[in-house]
Design goal:
The chain has helices at about 10-25, 55-65, 130-135, 155-160, 180-185, 230-235, 275-295, and strands spanning about 1-10, 30, 70-75, 80-85, 90-95, 100-105, 110-115, 130, 145, 165-170, 190, 195-200, 205-210, 215, 220, 225, 240, 245-250, 260-265. Strands 1, 2, 3, 4, 5, 6 and 19 form a seven-stranded mixed β-sheet that branches. Strands 8-15-9-10-11 form a five-stranded parallel β-sheet, covered by helices on one side. Strands 12-13-14 form a three-stranded antiparallel β-sheet, with no helix packed on it. The protein starts with a strand and ends with a helix. Helix 2 (about 55-65) links the parallel strand 2 (about 30) and strand 3. By secondary structure, the chain is of the alpha/beta class. The protein is elongated. It binds flavin-adenine dinucleotide (FAD) and magnesium ion. Magnesium ion binds near residues 67, 69, 70 and 72.
């Protein structure tokens, strides 16, 4: 059987796209590997109506709502390959199974590459974060560290004083110029130029090369992001350069540069969130549906 649409990725973005298509009585297949980006965090914040809930619960509720529609099929697995084009896409899963559809929705999200500092990755989502809107408030205006990964990290350092007293660890990545030092000072940011050796402890200690350590309640760092799914590249979809990594360029209806291929969520955003995943997903679902009628 050929589906109207195959959705690659069954988290917030893919579920939201699927809901519009299910309600339009279209035949939908969701292929999902079950590896959400926020699986490291115990609570999700900033999504209206669900603020502070465990991220897995939000996804599970969404999945239950979607699967109430009899025209939706769910497949656990990894989409590994794609061929064909609009009206006749064929997706091959890692186990060799093939599925075909008229349209594709790429909702596979991104994965985070973190700086290789001892003790950092283990604390990702617990006391090491990237998004102040997601995790800043809970630090209770405590002590905050910002670890530089590029000169762009100065934006991070300039923002964080709204959430607590901020130390900017430049870690040899760059040296702020006089104007930047003045801007940071105006925001009350302390600049620490010593290299960071490791991160330890529960409320974290940032251990410096000269033996000192800086104690903070939360450490912020910008990850490098990479597309999770290999399909966009195989299809030749155009990517844009975001501050954290490449993301899929899309039209007003979330269609990529390849006709019939739509994208939503983190895979198609410079900086994603659950709210934006759900929002762009809804737009992709409606976009796919209307493309099936009007072309
Ligand atoms: P994801 O949720 O990452 O889901 C992608 C899905 O696609 C996964 O299930 C994956 O297995 C599947 N997939 C990928 N490739 C394939 C393939 N080839 N075949 C089959 N399946 C595939 N945002 C907030 O709004 N609030 C927060 O509090 C918050 N906290 C966060 C904490 C941390 C530590 C991190 C890293 C992120 C946080 N975020 C938060 C951001 C949030 O996780 C993302 O914006 C959101 O998950 C994006 O949803 P998505 O559906 O696009 O992708
Ligand atoms: Mg069903």
């Amino acid at each position: 059987m050929s589906y109207d649409a195959i959705i690659i990725g069954g988290s917030y973005a893919g579920l939201s796209a699927g809901l519009q298509l299910a309600r339009a009585r279209r035949r939908v297949l969701v292929i999902d590997g079950g590896v959400r980006r926020n699986r490291f965090a115990s609570h999700s914040h900033g999504f209206l109506g669900q603020d502070g809930r465990p991220p897995a619960d939000i996804a599970a509720d969404g999945r239950a709502e979607l699967m109430d529609y009899p025209n939706v099929t769910w497949l656990v697995g990894e989409a590994a390959k794609v061929r064909g084009g609009s009206d006749a896409f064929v997706v091959t899963l890692a186990n060799g199974q093939t599925q075909s559809a008229r349209r594709l929705v790429l909702a596979g999200g991104v994965r985070d590459e973190l700086p290789a500092i001892d003790g950092l990755a283990e604390r990702w989502g617990r006391s090491v974060f990237h998004c102040p809107y997601c995790h800043g408030y809970e630090l209770d205006q405590g002590r905050i560290g910002v670890l530089a990964v590029s000169p762009m990290s100065i934006h991070h350092a300039m923002m964080l004083p709204d959430w607590g007293s901020t130390t900017f660890l430049t870690n040899g990545v760059f040296v702020p110029d006089t104007e930047q030092l003045e801007q940071l000072a105006n925001r009350g940011v302390v600049v620490e130029p010593e290299r960071v050796r490791s991160i330890s402890g529960e409320r974290v200690d940032i251990n410096l090369a000269d033996g000192r350590s800086v104690a903070v309640d939360g450490l912020f760092v910008m990850p490098r992001t990479h597309q999770n799914s290999p399909l966009a590249e195989q299809l030749g979809c155009t990517l844009a350069d975001g501050p954290m990594g490449p993301y899929l360029q899309t039209s007003e209806t979330q269609e990529t540069s390849v006709p019939g291929v739509f994208a939503c969520g983190d895979a198609a955003l410079a900086a994603g969130s659950v709210a934006l995943a759900v929002g762009t997903g809804a737009r992709a679902g409606a976009g796919v549906h209307q493309s099936l009628i009007f072309r």
